[in-house]
Amino acid sequence: MKWTGKIVGALIGLMFGHPFTVVMGLFIGHLYDIGLFSKWFGLPQAGHHHARVQEVFFNNTFTIMGHLAKCDGRVSESEIRIAQNVMDEMNLSLHMKREAIRLFNEGKVIGFNLDAALHELRSACWNRPSLLRIFIEIQMKIAFADGQVISPAKQKTLQYICQQLGIGAFNFSQFEQRYRAEQNYQHYRAHHQVPNPQAHLSDAYKVLGLSALATDAEIKKAYRRLMSQNHPDKLMAKGLPPEMIKMATQKTQQIKKAYEQICAARGVK
Asked: What is the b/e burial string over 24-38, where b = at least 16 CB atoms within 10 angstroms of the residue's CB?
């Protein structure tokens, strides 16, 4: 049984201090809980909105990815490979992979309306900053596809995307630094070799968004915050498409490994 609408309705009724308003509040809350209130007045229901967020996030992830890849003139083989890797990480069905490719190609077309796409994404995720963070991180994959230096056109486009999504210049710089560190950290672990242990530890700090000067308490706080922000169940509840949950899981694993390495280096248990 759903109680949220009933409780809110009753509280509103109590504000007016009359038994009749309490009853009316309970009644309207009940209608909201069973979906009739939204249906009668043409309002979106919670389940519908959740599905809409997933659809908007998925569609704009790939169209804007295509636009970003094309913004400096041509789409490189590396960028195509990165886009395919993202699709593989999501374990998309054949049908959804074809749709993702169609969306990617749609974003490459001259005249693609980037502002409309960003407005749609911002409207759908206005109270879901964790989804916007993941969106930017995915776009970073394309931006860095051709190496460790982002082209001026991509840099400008990425900064514009962040600006339109309400992500300030300082936060964008943090995204960029953290992404570089995450890629380095992932590379070290994948190849089981650490040519420079100190650089590897430095990247572990950056994965947590910290420097080596951070205190043990700050490290623990950052770790808990990042694990909470990237928890797959929480992200799915906010509207992250289920196909992208694997990416969120991999990120939490990386955060955990970085934290464990830092603790080991400091002798913290």
From this structure: bbbebbbbbbebebb
Q: Half-sphere exposure (CA, 13 Å, Cβ side) for 42? A: 0
> ∠ CA(202), CA(206), CA(207), 5° rounding?
115
From residue 237, how far is each of 67, 123, 201 by CA, in Å? Answer: 28, 17, 33
- Contacts for 146-150 with beta carbons within 8 Å, 24 or more apart? 146/76, 146/78, 146/79, 148/180, 150/176
The 8-class DSSP code of residue 71 comes to T
Quick: pLDDT tens for 68-97.
999 988 899 999 999 998 888 888 889 989
Structure tokens at 107: 């974003």
What tokens were used for 177?
A: 């630094």
Kindly list the domain boundaries of the chain, sorted by start residue: 4-40, 45-142+150-166, 168-269
Crossing angle for the helix pair 152-164 and 46-70, nearest 10 degrees? 160
* DSSP state at residue 151: -
